[in-house]
């Protein structure tokens, strides 16, 4: 049984610690930083490199195992497993890139990359499941903040890579193999189930606003310093100062529990959800307590219709059973309705589950294809350095994740507008960005990359609370990780099988080589043009499916957010 920490401060301490772990969980976003070394040092062609990119995405997003065990193991155990996966996976990659060990086979590197990036699934599951349960009535806000910091992780690692590690791929891999596990071990104690925080405390809204502003300032700082470092030759002192300020900004959310300690507020009438939802531990109890029941007849109807039952049936025992059910003495299980707590087998037979999966698959699958090939896209269009491109995508990714949570939370409470509306809007914009990429018009690469990053980030911050609202928090870890399979599936189809083949084929044409011998770079807009056309077409289908999904789940949001505030379903209160 999981121990639950009481008090109003522990959830905020856990959220502040989760920020660090969420940034560390973005280690998979560093693939573009060292992918060129895999190609040059180990002699891989573009197709082999894109298949490593697929391994990167499979490891990052295949989190069914952590999703299942998140209901059985304490968060610190999940974090421990994630730290060990990071150590072993990136450790093998470091041995290969640093040439400490030569002749490591390709298949072993592929597996090692899967293991290393799978740490992301373990770390993300630990912090998301724990904090969504600690703040159950602010799911969109919490998801936006945590996934926003996750979106900034690429820029954080880029800052470390360019400033501290001086663009050394081998040192970056060593940093991932040692630094991330150490961070997880430090944060284990603070990320734990707590008595759920109240959603009615006015100070709580201010705390969330502070966390959102702090993350935005951090994102803006990372973008500006990355560009500054790329343009100027900064001295070691200035570079170290930049990193020190970055660390202080990442620590900003911890100011919330410190303020609560120094200036404690009076207990309010609804300081916690003890009377409404018990504790976050109640959300992970066994299925024996999760039965959904309802009286089949009300006392009034049973009294009125008693005579007719006897006349029609004549079976006194059946009538007695119906009357007992009507009076509530006997209860019959019913299937859960959308908004209740579902089991996995109950959820996968629902059309809404698969519609949401497909829409998310289209959004993140197409976006991650661009991310995995961002360095080659920039080089094909004549950019000598793609560091700024990655920083722009990361900053846009952060804005999309943070803004998607904030905007969807605002409109769902104000207009009971389903969150999936924003997936429809952003995937429409993604069609435009892919057409901009394919046109290769001068001056459009940077804004298109930033815009795509924003739309890509929104998919995460919308999918996460939507899953919990439609299918409950009890098995949220499993549902979230199953939905996340859309990312590697999209990477396999769009990046591994499509983009890599088109790139190598065009490179072979340019250099009059056989396709299997294509180890040279491809230049020009034709390298990815067909890929962008395909991605735009897929997003068009995603827009139509998301419209259908939004119309279907509109009544659910009208029920959950009637009156402008979230109503916890009864099933989560048991």
Automatic annotation (TrEMBL):
Chief localization: membrane
GO cellular component: membrane
Bilayer topology term: Multi-pass membrane protein
Coiled coil feature spans: none
Keywords tagged on the record: Membrane, Transmembrane, Transmembrane helix
Positions of the Nodulin-like domain: 11-258
Transmembrane segments: 12-34, 73-95, 107-129, 172-191, 207-228, 234-256, 353-375, 387-408, 420-437, 443-464, 476-503, 530-549
Localization: Membrane
NFD4 C-terminal domain segment(s): 350-556
Pfam families given in the database record: NFD4_C (PF23262), Nodulin-like (PF06813)
The protein, known as: Nodulin-like domain-containing protein
Origin species: Cannabis sativa
């Amino acid at each position: 049984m999981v121990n639950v920490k009481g008090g109003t401060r522990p959830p905020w301490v856990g959220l502040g610690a989760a920020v660090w772990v969420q940034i560390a969980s973005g280690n998979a976003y560093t693939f573009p930083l060292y992918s060129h070394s895999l190609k040059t040092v180990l002699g891989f062609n573009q197709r082999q490199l894109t298949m490593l990119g697929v391994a990167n995405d499979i490891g990052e997003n295949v989190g069914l195992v952590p999703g299942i065990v998140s209901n059985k193991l304490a968060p610190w155990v999940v974090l421990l497993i994630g730290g060990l996966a990071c150590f072993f996976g990136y450790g093998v990659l470091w041995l290969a890139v640093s040439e400490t060990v030569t002749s490591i086979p390709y298949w072993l590197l592929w597996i090692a990359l899967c293991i290393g990036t799978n740490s992301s699934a373990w770390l993300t599951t630990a912090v998301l499941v724990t904090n969504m349960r600690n703040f159950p009535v602010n799911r969109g806000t919490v998801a936006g903040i945590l996934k926003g910091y996750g979106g900034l992780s690429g820029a954080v690692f880029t800052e470390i890579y360019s400033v501290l590690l001086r663009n050394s791929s081998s040192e970056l891999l060593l940093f991932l193999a040692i630094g991330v596990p150490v961070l997880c071990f430090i944060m284990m104690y603070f990320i734990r189930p707590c008595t759920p925080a109240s959603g009615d405390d006015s100070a709580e809204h201010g705390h969330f606003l502070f966390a959102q502003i702090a993350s935005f300032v951090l994102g803006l700082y990372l973008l500006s310093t990355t560009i500054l470092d790329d343009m100027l030759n900064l001295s070691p002192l200035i570079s170290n100062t930049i990193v020190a300020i970055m660390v202080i900004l990442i620590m900003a959310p911890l100011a919330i529990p410190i303020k609560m300690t120094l200036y404690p507020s009076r207990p309010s009438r609804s300081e916690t959800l003890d009377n409404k939802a018990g504790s976050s531990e109640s959300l992970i109890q066994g299925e024996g307590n999760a039965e959904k029941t309802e009286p089949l007849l009300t006392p009034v109807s049973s009294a009125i219709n008693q005579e007719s039952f006897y006349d029609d049936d004549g079976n006194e025992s059946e009538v007695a059973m119906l009357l007992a059910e009507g009076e509530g003495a006997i209860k019959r299980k019913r299937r859960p309705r959308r908004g209740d707590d579902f089991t996995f087998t109950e959820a996968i037979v629902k059309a809404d589950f698969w519609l949401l999966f497909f829409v998310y698959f289209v959004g993140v699958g197409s976006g991650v294809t661009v991310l995995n090939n961002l360095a080659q896209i920039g080089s094909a269009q004549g950019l000598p350095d793609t560091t700024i491109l990655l920083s722009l995508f990361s900053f846009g990714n952060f804005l999309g994740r943070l803004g998607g949570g904030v905007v969807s939370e605002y409109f769902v409470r104000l207009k009971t507008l389903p969150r999936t509306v924003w997936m429809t809007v952003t995937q429409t914009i993604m069609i435009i960005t892919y057409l901009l990429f394919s046109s290769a018009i001068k001056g459009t690469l940077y804004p298109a990359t930033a815009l795509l990053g924003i739309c890509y980030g929104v998919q995460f911050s919308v999918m996460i609370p939507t899953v919990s609202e439609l299918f409950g928090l009890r098995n949220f870890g499993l549902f979230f990780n199953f939905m996340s399979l859309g990312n590697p599936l999209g990477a396999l189809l769009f990046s591994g099988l499509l983009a890599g083949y088109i790139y190598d084929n065009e490179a072979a044409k340019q250099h009059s080589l056989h396709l299997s011998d294509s180890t040279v770079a491809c230049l020009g807009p034709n390298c990815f043009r067909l890929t962008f056309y395909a991605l735009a077409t897929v997003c068009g289908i995603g827009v139509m499916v998301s419209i259908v999904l939004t119309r279907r789940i509109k009544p659910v949001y009208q029920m959950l957010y009637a009156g402008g505030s979230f109503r916890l379903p009864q099933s989560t209160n048991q």
